[in-house]
Amino acid sequence: MTQPTTLIRTNLHDMLVAGIREMVIAGALRPGDKISEQALCQRYGVSRTPLREALKVLASEGMLELLPRRGAIVANVSPEEIDELFPVMAALEALAGELVCKHASDADLARLGAIHEHMMRAHAAKDEPTYLEANRSFHETLVSVAGNATLTASYMQILMRTRAFRFVARKSPENWQAAVRDHHAIMDALKVRNATRLSRLLRRHVMGVTVKIARDAIAAAADGNASIEAGELPKSA
Fold first, then answer.
1. pLDDT, tens digit, for every residue of 101-115?
2. Helix residue spans in 75-165 (DSSP H)
């Protein structure tokens, strides 16, 4: 068991919400996982009362579901929600690309370039966990350096619902290679600050390979659940 994390009591509520949110976004808690109140209380050194208030906030954001007599679970995403959420995410990233080309500093572009190179090294080494984390960092950094707080807030809200099917789900070799090709093109447009091309590439990336990865992940999860219900052993990763 890890040692309790020390929290500043005046910011207890916000820090609990942020800490649990990050666990979900990073994939430490996955869709369908039951939230262990006891484990989180021990992790953060708090009682159940402030923890449950934090869980209510995350449920209101759509990140968690509160089930009668079962507690909280990490929310799943349905195929119908993919159709709703990903076009909005694509539009937000497309706008972020335009703003980055116009307003980001050279240092911001260098930071994005460094993250991109880290991703490509991970891909060459077939280190998918490192690639996925760097991929998430690239897109979050891109949106952040666009310099629009409303855009960032809207993007992060949708990310909470889709992160497991974008930055956590395992990719097929074909999907991974397609994602890498997209990222090379995105980086090329970013280097020359071609706002129109970058915007178009980001929208196509999200609505193309990213949506396919999400749909494949949902289908794989459904197949796994069906096998378990039929009495079959789950396949190893």
1. 999 999 999 999 999
2. 79-103, 106-124, 128-145, 149-162
Per the prediction, the chain carries an average pLDDT of 84
Q: Which helix (H) or strand (E) holds 64?
A: strand 64-67
Question: Which of 197, 211, 183, 164 is CA-nearest to residue 64?
Answer: 164
pLDDT band at residue 227 under the 50/70/90 scheme: very low
Q: Which of 42, 45, 41 is nearest to 55 (CA)?
A: 41
pTM: 0.70
Rounded distance between C-alpha atoms, residue 65 and residue 157, angstroms: 15
Is 163 in contact with 65 (CB distance < 8 Å)? no
SS3 (DSSP) at 167: coil
> Within a 13 Å sphere around the CA of 216, how many CA atoms are in the beta-carbon half?
16
Comparing CA positions, the residue from 98, 209, 224, 80 lying closest to residue 151 is 98
Nearest residue to 78 (alpha-carbon basis) of 226, 230, 205, 221: 221
Residues 6+ apart with CB under 8 A from 215: 79, 82
The pLDDT confidence band at residue 168, using thresholds 50, 70 and 90, is low
Give, as one character, the DSSP assignment of residue 192: T
pLDDT in tens, 7-35: 444 488 888 988 888 887 666 787 778 89
Residues 6+ apart with CB under 8 A from 194: 101
User: Given the structure tokens 């984390």, which residue do they identify?
Assistant: 133
